[in-house]
Amino acid sequence: MKITTERPAQPAGATTTRTTATVIQLRRSTPQPARESLAAGECTIVSFPGAGAARSRPSTASTEAPPLTVTAANLRLRNERREAWRMAERAVNYWKARRDLQCAVACAQTVGIAEGQLQPPTDHDEHWDLVKKWRAALARQLLTPAPDLAAVRWKQAFLNSSEAVHNGVKTSQVERSIADDIAFLAAHPFRKGGRKAPSAF
Question: Is the pTM of this model over 0.85?
């Protein structure tokens, strides 16, 4: 922008001088807010774009569980067998307890013990029915996969007992079950404290 100025009128014969000046006005490309004066003890917080987003970005680390070790995998397989074994063992113990209780009540009633009279009269046929159910539970446990060596020893001890001939399970079946158990335990070793073998016969 140009500005022209003239001096005041001069006496006749004086020379008039005209002066031209150029004024350059500077303008910022983007308006900036006026700075506010800070009181003593105050400060300004400068935030950088993208810094918060970087902190809140979800972790890309894998959340998958690490693979099982060989020992842990073997333990899991044995635990699956152990649950089935315990179910079979509890069934055997239940029917054995029922058989023993019925036999005890029958003996008490026969000899005239007062406590025996508190129970319903016993039936001889009921006794043999309980024996059959107990032996059937025993047969199922003998063919249930063993979870440890204690269970294998229990099967082996059963074959050497007098009850083996009355159980209804062939000796060859039990021997094959024991052989399968030993092969499984050898292929899936796991060190653990021994467990007392059950006595159900």
Answer: no
Least confident of 16-25, 88-97, 136-145: 16-25
51 compared with 63, residue with greater pLDDT:
63
**Count of alpha carbons within 13 Å of 158, Cβ hemisphere only?**
29
50 Rama class: left (phi>0) / alpha (psi -120 to 50) / beta = left
Are the C-beta atoms of 144 and 187 separated by less than 8 Å? Answer: no
How far is the C-alpha of 71 from the C-alpha of 195, rounded, in Å?
Answer: 19
Strand positions, DSSP E, the chain: 2-6, 18-22
> Which tens digit of pLDDT belongs to each residue from 82-92?
999 999 999 99
- For 136, the token pair is 């059937």
The DSSP bridge pattern shows strands 18-22 and 2-6 to be antiparallel
Please give the Cα distance from 198 to 171 (Å, whole number): 20
